[in-house]
Amino acid sequence: MADENLPLHVGIIMDGNGRWAKQRLKPRNYGHDAGMKRVMKLAAHAKDRGIRYLTLYTLSTENLNRPEEELEGIYDLFRKYFGEYAVKLSKENSDVRIIGDISVLPADVQQKMLSACARKVENPDLTVIFAINYGSRAEIVRAANLAVQRGKKVTEEDFSHLLYTDGIPDPDLIIRTGREVRLSNFLLWQAAYAELYFTDILFPDFNNAAFDKALKDYSLRSRRYGKI
Ligand code: FPP
């Protein structure tokens, strides 16, 4: 499929871990664990498919209101992921980046995340971007305040440099798993011309073949950016 029209940047709203666990009569964190394993497989596959940027909505600002027990389970996954797995990613020529305000997370989790992000490779094949305590409106307000501090009018391009995603091209394709049909405060500015793809599949079941199906769907779309 060498001539296939592929996205450079794919965003995924990874929804449905809780329901996936519930279907198996397991606690919600069982679903998050399965979700993390799915992330590892998808990142490797995305790289093989030639995707250059993969942004994962990992924890929204609103998700931080979940019960302490669930959050602790997610933080443990972060400890594991940003410790061991991020090392593996950089050995495989991929970079890790985080967007969002991680300052509210436990200190050791922040430390692991920062070390993972600091481990840069020269010409990464893939950059995996984790949106953590991320909310698009908060990101836009933060950028607006930075613009005000600078005291002069900004263009769209200037403004985009003030967002967490500075330097990352806008997403071409945003996938949401788990049946809901909305963006839930994910990359609202950046998604202006993104193609959207929704699937009922719960995230832990969103396998490489399901990802390929989304890419195939994308490749058949006609992107006009408002032109005719
Ligand atoms: C949405 O499912 C998922 C989350 C709120 C957390 C996502 C976290 C992971 C996939 C773990 C990944 C961790 C790393 C480090 C990659 P939900 O709980 O809202 O599911 P539900 O809608 O079925 O309740």
Indicate the radius of gyration in whole angstroms. Answer: 17 Å
The parts where pLDDT drops under 50 for at least 5 residues are: none
Average pLDDT reading? 95
Strand fraction equals 15-25%
Q: How would you describe this structure to a colleague?
A:
The chain has 228 residues and is of the alpha/beta class. The protein is built from 7 helices and 6 strands; from the N terminus they run βααβαβαβααββα. It has helices at residues 17-23, 28-48, 68-91, 107-118, 136-150, 156-161, 208-219; strands spanning 9-13, 53-60, 94-99, 126-134, 173-176, 195-198. A 6-stranded parallel sheet has the order 3-4-2-1-5-6, with helices on both faces. Helix 4 (107-118) links the parallel strand 3 (94-99) and strand 4. Helix 1 packs across helix 2 (28-48) and helix 3 runs parallel beside helix 4. It is globular, with a radius of gyration of 17 Å. The two termini are 27 Å apart. The mean pLDDT is 95. Bound molecules: farnesyl diphosphate.
Secondary structure: elements and pairs:
Blueprint: E1 9-13, H1 17-23, H2 28-48, E2 53-60, H3 68-91, E3 94-99, H4 107-118, E4 126-134, H5 136-150, H6 156-161, E5 173-176, E6 195-198, H7 208-219
Parallel strand pairs: 1-2, 1-5, 2-4, 3-4, 5-6
Helix pairs in contact: 1-2, 2-3, 3-4
The structure holds farnesyl diphosphate.
